[in-house]
Amino acid sequence: MASDQTTEIARFGDLDIAWDPRVLQPRAWTAAQSEWAAELSPQCPDGPILELFCGAGQIGLLAASLTGRPLVQADLDPVAAAYVRRNAAAAGLTTDVREAAVEQALAPDERFGLAVVDPPWVPTARIGTFPEDPPLAIDGGADGTDLVVLGVRVALRHLSPGGNAVVQVGDPGQVELIRSLLPEGGTGDAAPWAVLEVRDFMPRGMLVRVGPQP
After folding, report:
1. Would 99 be classed as within a structural domain?
2. Which CA distances in Å does 103 have to 78, 164, 214?
3. 136: exposed, middle or buried (C-beta count within 10 Å: 0-12, 13-18, 19+)?
4. Which residue spans traverse the membrane (predicted)?
5. How many domains does the chain have?
6. Do β-strands 159-169 and 112-117 pair in parallel, antiparallel, or remain unpaired?
7. pTM of the prediction?
């Protein structure tokens, strides 16, 4: 992973996460996403955790550390994938890193008991507001929702019945967008999905729990 960038270390939960400015700097508040996934884990089916748009890997790695579940992580960026492997090794964790677009990273029959989805959610016109962040890691398309929609659909397609996904979004409008996707079930499975809870960390972001409709 040759680079003229200086690697930094961020404390994330009880993990030390290596990163440099080519990937998104770990945000301390997003440890709440890992912790929520761990809180839900006992009621979810067996199976690995899936993390989509994993960046340097901290959210999925902390969730795996807290739950003891196996982990599969996907990100298109080869620099991010290299940092995931490095961070997993430093933490003594095992992860299956898929360096691919999230819609191409999984085999059709792969199923997961739990998912965390961390899509870029900043509208393209606003990415200049965050000059220290790499555009690939934050650009969510014209209205910021392109990869939110993609990530939710991929996660639900691969969740086992009874599984849960914890999704990071940017604002209440994106929460409502997720609600609008769910009448279709997202997967074709018999049991439809629903937004079961929302946790507000604004102005930093929001977390959405999607699970089986009660």
Report:
1. yes
2. 16, 19, 28
3. middle
4. none
5. 1
6. parallel
7. 0.93
**Tens digit of each residue's pLDDT (9 = 90 or more) over 63-113:** 999 999 999 999 999 999 999 999 999 999 999 999 999 999 999 999 999
Q: In CATH, what number is assigned to the domain containing residue 115? A: 3.40.50.150
Token duo for residue 145: 């929702």
Domain presence at residue 84: yes
Q: What is the DSSP string of the chain?
A: ---SSPPEEEEETTEEEEE-TTSPPPPGGGHHHHHHHHHHGGGSPSS-EEEES-TTSHHHHHHHHHH---EEEEES-HHHHHHHHHHHHHHT---EEEES-GGGSS-TT--EEEEEE----B-GGGGGG-TTS-HHHHB--TTS-HHHHHHHHHHHHHEEEEEEEEEEESSHHHHHHHHHHGGGTTT--SSPEEEEEEEE-TTS-EEEEEEE--
